[in-house]
Structures are given as C-alpha cells and as structure tokens.
C-alpha cells in the first residue's frame, strides 16, 4: 500500500485514488490482493493518466498487453490478472446508472456498484461463450481469425445468443463458421477469459459424421479453417521454444497457449486418440 501511495504521490496523484482498487484474490497467508487501474496514457480513464514511460522507469520494468503476456504467465498469476482486467474494465464501463443517469458508487471490494438515487445494484457479468473442438473421428478441425498471432489455430468459438442453451449454441456456431452439422457433443470444462471483455468459456468436444466433412469457411468470421491429423497436432504440442521463436519458422503452426482452455481441448483429443490406438 505504501509503495502505491508513494508512486501516486510522485506523479502528482491523490492517494485517495487507491479506493478505486478492486479485490482480486487472497494469498495462502490470507493477505488480500487488490488491483488498481493507473490509466497509463489513457483517454478513457476517469482520472488523469500517468505517463507510461516514466512509470516504467520508476518501476524498472515494462508494461505488456495481457494478450501477449498469457504466453509467459503461470496459472496463478494469469488468474489474478484475468480477474483484474475484467473487473477494472467493468467498473470503467459502469460509472453511471442506466436508469437515472446518475454516478454509481463502488463498494469496498469492487464486487458491485450502487446507484445512490434509486438503490439499483449492478454486478459484474460474464458473457457465455461456447468453444468447441470438432472431430470426424481421426482428425480435428481448427480455425484462425486474422487477429490471431501468426500461424496460430484454435477451436471454434462464439457467444451464446439469448434463449439458447449450450447445445444449441454449439450446433449454430459450427454450422455458421464452417458449414458442418454436429452429430454428438460432450462438455469438457469451463474457464473465465477476460477477452474481449469478460467471458465464461464453455468448452466442448463435438463430432461430425465421417462422410460429412467438407468445410465451408465463413470468411466474415474466420480467416481460415482446416482439418488436422493426429500426427500434426501431436507434433505441434511437442514443440519447444517460445511463441516468438516458433512464429519465425518458415511455415509456423502454433496451438493456443497452455493457459487457454482451447489448449486443454486439443490435449484431451490427442490423449483420446492415443488411447484408441493402443491394443486392447
């Protein structure tokens, strides 16, 4: 706390700004962890922004976009940072009551905001997203968007529409993005994901009939999509080196970072294929 106050004071900021911090977790020693948006060179912050380069010099480090940092983070740090970004973004976008137009107030932990004029309580929300690894029995289907890192392919994903259940969302997304009809599906796991704002990733495996595998890529949604064999996926999983090193290959083929639930889906598929190939 003292270090943050000192930093704010050095750059002409009121220490009262610490009250804008949000609770993001607790250590094994029961120490509370909070996150604070410094608004570095940001025109969107409700406070005066701090000069990024000068703060980096003061802290003897450098800031990096969270999307890039996930390739280097461990699971505990990523969970804290994911929560921090999602909560801070939510508070930044809910400064005013949608009914009265009056400023809302954050509670101490940052778990909600309240409008003093009508007592409406606003809670942070997550948007449900289905992410699906499609297989035809011997191959899995991966796709990429233009915003992905060079050479990276991932499972199909999309937001659930109002009124849809998980199964309906999976069938619709697969049909919309690659023109395939899902035959069977199985839930795998879920994960909070801070992009684009705050999403609940619902991970599933799905299969299509072996004779109905012709892909029709929706270029409004995807840049490319293709079937990949077990050997191609297993080789990609075994790759060593950093993402930057792998991207510099002549024909890079990268999978999502280990922290992403898409990576877990792909790993599960490979393990299932491996078990299926073993003699009974």
From TrEMBL:
<dbReference type="Pfam" id="PF00293">
    <property type="entry name" value="NUDIX"/>
</dbReference>
<keyword id="KW-0378">Hydrolase</keyword>
<dbReference type="InterPro" id="IPR015375">
    <property type="entry name" value="NADH_PPase-like_N"/>
</dbReference>
<keyword id="KW-0496">Mitochondrion</keyword>
<dbReference type="InterPro" id="IPR015376">
    <property type="entry name" value="Znr_NADH_PPase"/>
</dbReference>
<dbReference type="Pfam" id="PF09296">
    <property type="entry name" value="NUDIX-like"/>
</dbReference>
<keyword id="KW-0520">NAD</keyword>
<dbReference type="GO" id="GO:0046872">
    <property type="term" value="F:metal ion binding"/>
</dbReference>
<feature type="domain" description="Nudix hydrolase">
    <location>
        <begin position="124"/>
        <end position="250"/>
    </location>
</feature>
<keyword id="KW-0460">Magnesium</keyword>
<keyword id="KW-0479">Metal-binding</keyword>
<comment type="function">
    <text>NAD(P)H pyrophosphatase that hydrolyzes NADH into NMNH and AMP, and NADPH into NMNH and 2',5'-ADP. Has a marked preference for the reduced pyridine nucleotides. Does not show activity toward NAD-capped RNAs; the NAD-cap is an atypical cap present at the 5'-end of some RNAs.</text>
</comment>
<dbReference type="InterPro" id="IPR000086">
    <property type="entry name" value="NUDIX_hydrolase_dom"/>
</dbReference>
<dbReference type="InterPro" id="IPR049734">
    <property type="entry name" value="NudC-like_C"/>
</dbReference>
<dbReference type="InterPro" id="IPR020084">
    <property type="entry name" value="NUDIX_hydrolase_CS"/>
</dbReference>
<keyword id="KW-0464">Manganese</keyword>
<dbReference type="GO" id="GO:0016462">
    <property type="term" value="F:pyrophosphatase activity"/>
</dbReference>
<dbReference type="Pfam" id="PF09297">
    <property type="entry name" value="Zn_ribbon_NUD"/>
</dbReference>
<comment type="similarity">
    <text>Belongs to the Nudix hydrolase family.</text>
</comment>
<dbReference type="InterPro" id="IPR015797">
    <property type="entry name" value="NUDIX_hydrolase-like_dom_sf"/>
</dbReference>
<keyword id="KW-0521">NADP</keyword>
<dbReference type="GO" id="GO:0005739">
    <property type="term" value="C:mitochondrion"/>
</dbReference>
<keyword id="KW-0809">Transit peptide</keyword>
<protein>
    <recommendedName>
        <fullName>NAD(P)H pyrophosphatase NUDT13, mitochondrial</fullName>
        <ecNumber>3.6.1.22</ecNumber>
    </recommendedName>
</protein>
